[in-house]
Design brief:
The complex is a heterodimer of chains A (271) and B (241). Chain A is of the alpha/beta class and 271 residues long. In chain A, 41% of the residues lie in helices and 16% in strands. An 8-stranded mixed β-sheet of chain A has the order 3-4-2-5-1-6-7-8, sandwiched between helices. The radius of gyration of chain A is 18 Å and the shape is globular. Chain A starts with a strand and ends with a helix. In chain B, the strands form 3 sheets. A 6-stranded mixed β-sheet of chain B has the order 5-7-9-11-14-15, with no helix packed on it. The longest helix of chain B has 14 residues. Classes of the chains: A alpha/beta (271), B alpha/beta (241). Chains A and B meet through helix 7 of A and loops of B.
Amino acid sequence: MAKILVVTSGKGGVGKTTTSAAIGTGLALRGHKTVVVDFDVGLRNLDLIMGCERRVVYDFVNVINGDATLGQALIKDKRLENLYVLAASQTRDKDALTQEGVGKVIDELSQNFEYVICDSPAGIEKGAHLAMYFADEAIVVTNPEVSSVRDSDRMLGLLASKSRRAENGQEPIKEHLLLTRYNPERVNKGEMLGVEDVEEILSIRLLGVIPESQAVLKASNQGIPVILDDQSDAGQAYSDAVDRLLGKEVAHRFLDVKKPGFLQRLFGGRE
Amino acid sequence: MSQAEPDTQAPAFQLKGSMLAITVLELVRNDLDSLDRQLAAKVEQAPDFFNNTPLVLGLDKLPEGGLEVDLQALVELCRKHGLLTLAVRTGQAAYIQAAGHLDIPVLPPSGARERKLDLGGKAPAKPAEPQYRPSRVITTPIRGGQQIYAQGGDLIVIAPVSPGAELLADGNIHVYGPLRGRALAGIKGDTNARIFCQQLAAEMVSIAGHYKVAEDLRREPLWAEAVKIGLTGDVLNITRL
């Protein structure tokens, strides 16, 4: 049976899809057979970020409606052996998802994969609800700002009360905090919430801190998950987060302001 | 001087006759071991009854000519089970003498107008059980958008309470963690209800409808401290815990 992971946040634009793509790719890189499922029906993006948008034939809604089999709809990643994508439908809306249909698809996926990553849409409505309903673990993506923290807090409340595990009285969903778009300089200036502040308010385990990075935008536009850019700080931070997800103890990096190196100070350098 | 002199002529006491309902332990046979065991069983049935209860020992129903009961042992046994011997009811000379040695008054043997005391499950001495409702205890963080209501009692939270969360209780609210949401105690109008928290960072606190919002609370010198909040008249009092 697969482990079902939901990547969620409540708020939009905080980096859920970037994170889903990065974590999914990271797990596949480490040899785990992984599928990433886009739950954002009507506003699909995952295929773009994973670089498979030109190969989408059937999608999630087709599978739910029985127009296609899972085998037909799953898109195999070109770079990695163990990685698959199930795209969302662009022509439909969230009402096309039913709890029964989603449950069936998740069940079938969990028989063939080690990890099923559910990329949740923003909000707390049907799409987001179904993305987290079947989850075993949740990665709550949060930006270091008050509105994002508040929405994440709300989402954590729903994870604890409105999921299948909660309704069946099973062990609760394991929650991980992933802080993205973190800028230590702005934290020092008091313009941004610090890691400790967010951790204290949400009081869940910190999975990782992804620094604000040019590499993320570049990776998105190229359709290459940022974790594959192992030169970038964001890529390395995601890599650490995947290791922690798999139970490794890895120290947190990129929390402090970078001190410019000797040569950089002499000649000035690009960021 | 004569003013301070007590009036020696005025009566210092009155003698009154009174009927007291009193428990009589009527011994039927001389067997202190059985008595000990059976008394212990009764005590278990009605523990409230056997709590320094005054008692008259009735020895007049003992078969005459049998072995004499050791009165001192009997009195001690009764005391062990929470029964205090006031007097002994007997007509036999030997017992009257023994009672005299123990300084216990002697009453004459009984007439026949006594009824058996029923100490069964619903002992009359037992007061009615007070209405008890257990407190509601929450051990996981309470997130924004969640509402927790402790009906008819206290609410105890052993976790942080996030902004946007709402705690409601008919009784008191205890938060062993930061209180960042709303807390409304005594919502059915109990003005004695209180709110306790380890870190006051609430959006609103209210007791029996008297409230303070964050804007007022933030001006409190005890903001972000451990406090208790109670109601005096119409005013919410915030004091250090």
